[in-house]
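Narrative summary of target 7.
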Amino acid sequence: MSWLAKMIVSVEDGLKNDKTDSYSWHKKPWECFPNDPDKKRDFLTRLDSMEGVFCLWMLAQEKPICPSWCLPENFSLKEIAPSFLSHRYYAFDLRANPVKTISKRGLNDEILYRANGKRKHGKRIPIVKIDELSAWIKRKGNIRCRDNVNGADVPGGFRIVEEYPLEIRPMTENYFRKVEKTDGKVHRAYHGSVQFRGTLEVTNQAHFSATYHNGIGSAKGFGLGLFLLAPVNL
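Modeled conformation, tokenized:
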């Protein structure tokens, strides 16, 4: 059992409560769990900016409560029963952080390998080309993530239905700043956000349920990777 919360906050109130970038929104959701101050981030969020308001979505295993910075009438909560994930087809809306890892290279531009024969990974860079983004979301249906314990690929449990349009909006850059508690230094960075809209078919319900609850891609702690789903009949 899980819960999907929706919180509407005016831009004016957001500025008053220091919610000005993705890092400040990254911290605020913990206030939905006041009885568990040491709670790990086992929930997903998504922030939509609309005319005059912010809309924050949250998918959590623990039932969230309305935080102080959201008016009660602007807080809605829906219980996600296991049966919701039993459908075959869904229309989906996803904001994600598609990236690819560049292999490390030597002085002569040769690819460097580890002792176990695997490539040494360098920095991750955003994916921006439409054809590569399309390939990325389709690949996620077969490989959700890499299992850090045994190195195996974890199936995503879905496929993109190519007979229906797949809308991919250009990447937007979400800049934020983080102040280190130890020395007070300010670090500035950004995450690339790409919105995908389309239709998917569930190929393995157990794997897809895990994908839905765990999210897709990187930067999930910064409001990316959460599927918004609506069952459809094809």
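The chain has four helices and 14 strands.
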